[in-house]
Design brief:
Helix content is about 45%, strand content about 15%. The chain is an alpha/beta fold and about 260 residues long. The structure holds 3-methylbut-3-enyl trihydrogen diphosphate (IPE) (2 copies) and magnesium ion (MG).
Length: about 260
């Protein structure tokens, strides 16, 4: 019995230590653009005997917390993966719930961004999203459009797929060539980048994936060519401000060579 008490105390002490741990970050080497695959909501809920929807709601709460901290640290651009082109394969009930959650939570998230003068953009194919949601995201983008000059962005990837984005860009470029507005010789990497949903932002410096999965899941395929990757076992709703600092600290210890020496 004594031993169990000791173990529990030790566990709490360790957790407290972790919460109080702060990382000494180099203020001059904060990644300009961080992209996050917000994964693990379902497992977070299951661990607590809750429905998956509770996990998604907790994930949305955590986005507010982490976004706030990221901008406080000096991050300029944050891109979060909220719903992929593959997520339509989930049970209809879960998909409907996720769309409703977007309707409910997006205005609050944009309120916070408006307050911080961060411009909000939605990345992805809107044609498959429910009409009221499309109307809402257009209105929310318009609300913060004026902050583009601050260079601070929150990109929310909704019905986003990296391959789908490239198909979309290639089709637009082909149409420009067909209409003699562009010649095939003028197609450069910059031209392709400028036709992507992320044209307004630099490529991500750091891509984070909590939840233990070590894969890209069709996220920012073109843009992450030279990003640093960081994986963590923590489920997204539990991913804390300290975990973000730990990821940035790890990033700052990396040697980015971009193919050079
Ligand atoms: C991420 O969490 C949210 C979405 C993909 C919409 P998941 O729902 O994928 O959570 P897990 O991976 O099942 O735990
Ligand atoms: C990636 O997570 C998509 C989002 C977080 C929105 P998934 O849970 O859909 O990815 P897989 O299925 O594990 O690759
Ligand atoms: Mg998942």
């Amino acid at each position: 019995m004594k031993n169990i008490k000791f173990e529990v105390k030790l566990l709490f002490w360790k957790r407290k230590q972790k919460e109080n741990q702060s990382y000494s970050l180099d203020k001059h080497n904060i990644p300009t653009h961080i992209a996050i695959i917000m994964d693990g909501n379902g497992r977070w809920a299951k661990k607590r005997g809750l429905p998956r929807t509770a996990g998604h709601a907790a994930g949305a709460d955590n986005l507010v917390k982490i976004a706030r901290h990221a901008y406080d640290l000096g991050v300029k651009c944050l891109t979060v993966y909220a719903f992929s082109t593959e997520n339509w394969k989930r049970p209809e009930e879960e998909v409907t719930n996720l769309m409703n959650l977007c309707m409910k939570r997006l205005p609050q998230i944009v309120d916070l961004m408006e307050h911080r003068k961060v411009s909000v953009k939605f990345l992805g194919d809107r044609s498959r999203l429910p009409e009221p949601l499309v109307k809402m995201i257009e209105a929310e983008e318009a609300r913060t459009e004026g902050f583009a000059q601050t260079g601070c962005y929150l990109n929310i990837a909704l019905n986003y797929g990296g391959r789908d984005e490239l198909v979309h860009a290639v089709s637009q470029i082909a149409n420009e060539v067909k209409g003699n507005r562009l010649s095939p010789e003028q197609i450069t990497e910059e031209v392709i980048s400028s036709h992507l949903y992320t044209a307004h932002c630099p490529d991500p410096d750091l891509v984070l994936r909590p939840s233990g999965e070590i894969r890209i899941s069709n996220f920012l395929l073109w843009q992450s060519a030279y990003s640093e990757f960081y994986y963590d076992n923590i489920l997204w709703p539990d991913f804390s401000e300290q975990d973000l600092e730990k990821a940035i600290c790890t990033y700052q210890g990396r040697n980015r060579r971009f193919g050079g020496v």
